Each structure stands twice: as C-alpha cells, then as structure tokens.
Amino acid sequence: MGRSSFLHRSLGAALAAAALLAGTPALALDTDDAPQATAPADLVTDGEPAGGATPAPAVDPTAALAARLDALEKRNAELEAQVQRLSAVEAKPAPKADPAAAKVSLANGRPTFASADGRFTASLRGFFQLDASRFDQRRPGPLASDFRRGSLGDAAEADRARDLGDGTNFRRARIGVEGKAFGDWDYNFLFDFGGSGVESSGVINQAWLQYGGLKNAKLRVGAFAPPAGLDDATSVTQNQFIERAAVSELVRGLAGADARVGAGVLAAGERWNASAVVTGATVGQQSFDEQLGFVGRAVFAPIKSAKTVVHLGVNTSQVINPPAAGPDVPPVGAAQNVRLRERPENRVESVRLVDTGNIDADGVSALGLEAAAQHGPLTVQGEYQTIKVERRNSTLSDPRFDGWYVQAGWTLFGPPRKYSMSSASFEAPKVEKPFNLKTGDWGVWEVGARYSVLDLNSREGAAGAAPPVNGVRGGEQKIATLGVNWAPNNTVRFQATLQDVEVDRLSPGGTAFGAGALTPPAGAQVGQKFKIWTVRAQYAF
Fold first, then answer.
1. Which run of H or of E encompasses 483?
2. Three-class HEC string of 274-285
3. Which pTM was predicted?
4. Which of 296, 446, 301 is nearest to 373 (CA)?
5. 81-85, 212-216, 309-313, 340-344: least confidently modelled range
6. For 313-326, how does the pLDDT look when each residue is reduced to its tens digit (9 = 90+)?
7. 3-class SS string, 161-223
8. I want to staple 433 with a disulfide (CB 3.0 to 4.6 A). Which of 151, 232, 394, 441 is the partner?
9. Buried b (16+ CB within 10 A) or exposed e, 409-432
10. What's the DSSP call for residue 392?
11. Neighbours of 368 (CB within 10 A)
C-alpha cells in the first residue's frame, strides 16, 4: 500500500470512529448495573397493560446499529474522496513560466525591463544635482581701481569677476535609458538639462553603441566621455568632492569631455585597465573643419585586496588637428585656435579666472601620471599633468603649462570606498544601513581634503611690465578644499565644501579684457583671493 493511500485510509477510519462515538448511545456492558423495568403483578390482567394503554412496538437493537454503521461507512467514503481531491490539487505542478515573458525589477529605484533569457534589457536612468553657493569675496570697487578680472576678451566676465554671484544651479539633470540587445550589444542614451551658471534646454550627453562579446574588451562608438584620467574616470554621482580638480577638468576638455564623438576600445582585466579612443568634436560644436583627437589611458594595480589597493597609471590627451575657423588656403590658412581656461572648481558661477586666450596652434599634447592608494576607510589619490601647445608660428616658442592635485578621503560611518577595475577608479561607499531614526542608523558619512594647482602661465615676465613676445599670462590658480558627504541611502546624497581660492595673474595690457578701463595696465595684478561655500543635493537612480 502506498504512503498516500495509507494516510487516506487512516484519516477515513479516524473520522468514522469519531463520528460513531459522537452519534451512537453508549451500550451497557454490565447487565447487573442496568436498571430493569418490571411491571408489578397487580397491574397485569389478561396480558394487557393496566389502564388500557397500548404497548410500544419492540425495537431490534441489532438493526439500529447496522443502520448507523452503514451511514458512517457512506460518510467515510465521502471524506476519503474529498481528501484525495485535495491531495491531487497539492501535488499538481505549478504552471511553467512563459519563456517570452518580460521581467521587471526596481533595484535602488531604477526601473529595469528584461527578457526572460536576459538577452534584452532596458533600464531607465536619471539623476539631478542641485548646487547652491555663496562667495565670500571683497566688495567690488570701480573698474579703474579694482583690477580683478575674468576671461580675456569677454567684457561681461571681466567685470563680473569683481562680484561673483551667489545663487543656485542645477549642475546636472539627466534622464535616459541604457541596456543591451542580443546579449552582446550595449547601448546608452542620456540627455542633460543642467549646466554651468545656467541650465540648458536639453542636450545629448551620451549616445553610444558598444559590442561586449570579447573576453576583456569592449568596442564603443558614438558620443561619450572617454576616460582622460583617474579623476575623470570617477562617476560624477560618486566623486569625493562636488567638482573635479581644475586641472582634471581642463585636460578632459581637450579631446574628451561629455558628448564627445569618438570610437575606441575599453579593456580591463583582474589588475589592469586600458583604453584608446579616437575623438572628434563634441555634439553641437561647429567649426569649418572638426577637431581630431586621441585619448588614451593605462592603469596597473600591483596591490589589490579586500582592504588595500595601490593604483598606478598614465594617460594622454592629444589634439592632433585643432578645429579650423575656415578653409586651409595657402600659405597661412585659417586660424586653428586653442584656448585653455577654467573655473574655480565651481559651476554655480560661470566666470573663469584663469585663461590663456586664443593660441594659434598645430596641436596640443597633455601627458599625465596617476597614483592612488586605499587602506580600509582611507583613500588617497593624486595626478600631475603637463600640457604643451605647438604653435603654428614657428618663430615663437611653444608654451607649456601644468597642474596637479592631491586629495584624501576618510569614511567615518559605513563601509569604505570600493575600487573598480572596470573603470580603474573608486566608487562611493554602498549604504548597507540606510538612515533610520527608529533604528539609530545614519547611512554613510565621509570627510575629505584636497589641494589643487593649475598654472596657465608660460614665460609671463615680471610684474609691472608688458609680457614677452612669446609669453602667456593665463594665471595660476590654487585651491584648498574641505568637504563632507552624507548618503542616507543609495539614491540620495548630500555634499558640502569650503574652498579657499587664490589666483595670481598679471594683466597682459592693451585691450586684452576689453576697451578702456576693462583692461588694467600691463603687469597689474588681476587675480584675487576669496572663499566659496557650496552645498549639493543629489538624487540618482
């Protein structure tokens, strides 16, 4: 007898016994204790009951018991049939999933759709960063005596540098979709409505297609930001500070930066990372002949463990052919201007305080060194860049510029930053215990410090005098930054920084900043010192 049949019969027998005991009167087994009904002799006459009553018909106890047992057997059969039906329902296998049905998930607030076999996916991606800044600056004076200036040839910036504007700005507001198709192909469409100083009406930030079927490499084409260094390779939603170091921002803009059209290979292994991308213009940039450039990077991690990481790298950004303003008509051809300028690591105010002005060039070459280390909650990194501009006028010497930064971060609460070999950069700590007042959890807290230098002077000459013929007075910018970050969960992040800015810059004279009082005398100090307080609120999914 099978186990199921045994259980069914046992259950049926138990139910029958319970019913029998509940519904059948008890039988007296000891006749000596049973009361006996005997009629007294004087009540019986001629066999009739006294008083003329009709006697009750005699009841056969055996027949009554048999009827009761028949009813119980019928009920037992019905119960056994019901148990068998229930068992059949429980044993019935669950219906098989439709292999063509899509899967939907919402990890960390990001909606993702995927085919059942995983070969097709589409994830909605978006984030915004809202910044607010206050500039602690000396009050402005008349142009004739207050020589603080901004970009060359821009009267508005030259004037505005004396009174940098406090305010707010959506630094980034991006929305798009990313995923894969047919298993080996990846894609990304991302639009940005943020900006520097003022928001945009919407521009392409990324639009690329990538083949990922190779073992250690991916082939990508479209509009994207090729990694130009360690600071540049770090995601903008996971940076230690609100903005990149000035030198990193400047170098990435030579042949890389957001929305740069290009094609190349990005590869990575267990302890190495390498990329090589040929680039053109950025989306929306117009010129007679588009720029041709190259961005390359190679990284090796000699030490890479769960608690300790050492990162060493080199990178280069090359402008092979600068954008031309017109046709290349002999003997001179149209100007191919290159201009190096940068903001004080802040985008609420759009003014640039260091600026070389236009340099007619055949090309630009930037070479960089990277170094970083992590041990537990401590992360340290730095980069050095040297930049050479090759003039088209061979009678003038080629100017050289440089810059560097070093920074350190410490995770106070929560896990440390994580090193990713796929990007050869550090990711923000993951929040394992989201902020919750009831449980006393506070998410992740970080503190950091950075010092950066960007020197855009080249043979600038002495103060109080005109610059040499081949000199460039772009200025030197030094910034010390203190920062604190709080991530209550993995989608929300708040950052705050205090920056101490010092710009040392001599006036080129003439009409470099504009006519009249806009341009201070040659050799006059047009730099300044001030502080910036900035906070950021970020939501990313």
1. strand 472-487
2. EEEEEEEEECCC
3. 0.81
4. 301
5. 81-85
6. 999 999 999 998 88
7. CCCCCCEEEEEEEEEEEEEEECCCEEEEEEEECCCCCCCCCCEEEEEEEEECCCCCEEEEEEE
8. 441
9. bbbebbebbebbbebbbbebbebe
10. S
11. 25
Residue tagged 């609120």 (tokens) = 537
* pLDDT tens digits along 2-40: 444 443 444 444 444 444 434 443 333 343 443 343 333
Cis peptide before 416 (omega within 30 of 0): no
Tokens of 468: 């040499």
Torsion of CA 477, 296, 231, 452, to 10 degrees: -20
Tokens at residue 251, please? 């170098």
Residue 208 token pair: 């690329």
b (16+ CB within 10 A) / e for 277-308: bbbbbbbeeeeebbbbbbbbbbbbbeeeeeee
Pairing of strands 272-282, 260-268: antiparallel
Q: Which residue has the tokens 């009409």?
A: 511
Q: Residue 14 belongs to what H/E stretch? A: helix 3-23
Write the CB contacts of 219 (distance below 8 Å, at least 6 apart in sequence): 210, 211, 264, 265
| Residue 14, amino acid | A
Structure tokens at 519: 């341009």
